[in-house]
Amino acid sequence: MKQKKTLLTLIAILILFVFVFIADQTLDSYKMRILNLCAIYVILGLSMNLINGFTGLFSLGHAGFMAVGAYTTAILTMPDIVKTQNFFMTPMMKPLDTLHVPFFLALLAGGILAGVVGYLIGAPALRLRGDYLAIATLGFAEIIRVVFTNTQSITNGALGLKGIPVSTNIWWTFGLALVTVLIIGSLINSSYGRAFKAIREDEIAAESMGINLFKHKVIAFTIGAFFAGIGGGLLGSLLGTIDPLMFRFFLTFNVLLIIILGGMGSITGTIISAIIITIGGEALRFLDESMTIGSLVIPGISGMRMVVFSALLMIVVIFFNHGIMGTKEFTWDGLFAKFAKKPLAKGGNKQ
Amino acid sequence: MMNFNAVFMYLTGMDLGTFLQHLTNGISLGSLYALVAIGYTMVYGTLRLINFAHGDVFMMTTYFAFYGVSTFMMPWYVSFILAIILTGALGMLLEKWAYRPLRDAPKISIMISAIGASFLLENLAVVLFGGRPKAFPSVKILTDSIQLGSVSIQKLTFVIPIVTVIFLVGLLYLINHTKTGMAMRAVAKDYETAGIMGVNVNLTISQTFAIGSMLAAVGAIMWGLKFPQIAPLMGVMPGLKAFIAAVIGGIGNIKGAVIGGFILGIGEIMIVGFLPSLSGYRDAFAFIFLIVILLFKPTGITGEKIAEKV
């Protein structure tokens, strides 16, 4: 049975890669961009879900970690000449202006630096709980943004970085999204994952069962920050330009919307809703543009799309607060049980 | 006096006149933070909820006042009073639609709903009023400058703290000496028990939101007069800073919110005044201050330690 499931997983991964290959060959650049964004939002959603959904730490600092990852990756991959063009106000700091490394290493460096920042923020902030933690992490993210706006010789300040080499392609994004799913999936099913969930359900009970609260919270927070950094790096290198305004609270809100819609504490839900939200966001673009129905022209209202999105978040929270999947996951067992009428292996029948 | 000024300048690197100017500026900014912070603290006191949309309610007031004066040609005082009333109604609607359905839901859900409400208001403002900043109507009698010795100071700098004190005294009277205030205090202590004792909980929470929003509206109008440029996202920063002020003072405590507002307003102006090279980091100060307070005295200056109930 176990072998069969592994085989099925491998086949599913193979199908995914065939899909990626076909998409890479046939789709135009606009559609490719949407697919890339889907995969990046899967990574970002999973990293936030690890912190907020699985460990129950309500953190709103995601945009800050993404900024660290995006800036690190961009600075380490930009060629010298582009750097000189960008930094016309103040020259770039000495070792950075000629430093570059291959894309993957830059991405990894971005992730690690974001993880380090996550650790440094988490170590003091995780002593706080609930809404105090939320506001403190929001504050830290805002501080990171203000610092990036002011460190002219490293980040080019408010002008941002332009002409970042577009090294991201669909293989990178889908590959890394898959790696993220596998790593976070196995983390959740390990003893650490069970400790995370215990902390989410009841901190005091978890502590009295011998779980080191602080250690596990910091681990979840740091790993979440690491993947947020990777996601940020991919996003920067997909868009080709970043500036501090991009990393406002709004970006955190987007990722939050994904994990709320998908279900706090479900990997499957996060993947589904990352795809729905990204494609839906593009599909709803018609709301911002003018429409012609017969002879009637309805002028577009820019910003309407965001009204729909915010209303959607509130409707989901008020009426379906478990999201698409709640804390349930897709498993092969679950799939078999749906089709087989016989009792489950561990006893009982479905429902 | 001359001598004192010289000593002062030697000690601080700033002459007394400039210092006093910074101080009055700090006090008027602090009053605005205090007015907005009261709304946060009252809502937190009753619902244990950070009302993320409070800053956006603040923003809506400035637009109400703007359209009252520009489109409906009302005199400024009529428009301002109407804007304050409308904002109170908006606060009540917000509570009814976004928070009441979730009153018994997990805390995280109600907070996400608050974030959603905040974004909804911001985006609605973009759609309805346009993203481009507008000029807030200026009121000559209030925004004129007066000459004090060598410096000229806007009248508004004095009007703001006076108005704040008037509203604060009114609020404290309402909370401590009226039946409504008693109901509010009861609901803040424990809304279930208050309900059993015959307090109309829904009505009282609505009133709390209305009063908090109206005080924010008073702050917003004076903010608009002081910084006469209004935009859909203008409420975010004052909102966050007022919230920080509420935390500094000990959230849930009205006097604490006022003290926190003054500390934050004066501190912000003074740091930028004394260390102009750090002015780019101005918005970060409040957050750094918040984090330091949260780490060392999470219940704020006036707050008391609360034991965790199992």
Describe it:
The complex is a heterodimer of chains A (351) and B (310). Chain A is mostly helical. Chain A has a domain at 8-248. Chain A contains 15 helices and 4 strands. In chain A, helix 1 packs antiparallel against helix 8 (170-188) and helix 3 (62-77) packs antiparallel against helix 5. The longest helix of chain A is centred in the middle third of the chain and has 27 residues, at 213-239. Chain A is globular and about 70 Å long. The model of chain A has no long low-confidence stretch (mean pLDDT 88). Chain B is mainly α and 310 residues long. Chain B has a single domain, classed as ABC transporter involved in vitamin B12 uptake, BtuC. Chain B is 73% helix and 4% strand. Chain B is built from 13 helices and 4 strands. A two-stranded antiparallel ribbon of chain B has the order 1-4. A two-stranded antiparallel ribbon of chain B has the order 2-3. The radius of gyration of chain B is 20 Å and the shape is globular. The mean pLDDT of chain B is 88. Chains A and B meet through helix 6, helix 12 and helix 14 of A and helix 5, helix 11 and helix 13 of B.
How large is the share of residues in beta strands of chain A?
under 5%
Question: Major beta sheet of chain B, specifics?
Answer: 2 strands, antiparallel
Rg of chain B: 20 Å
The tally of strands of chain B reads 4
CATH class of chain B: Mainly Alpha
What is the distance, rounded to the nearest whole angstrom, between the alpha carbons of the first and last residues of chain B? 61 Å
Shape of chain A: globular
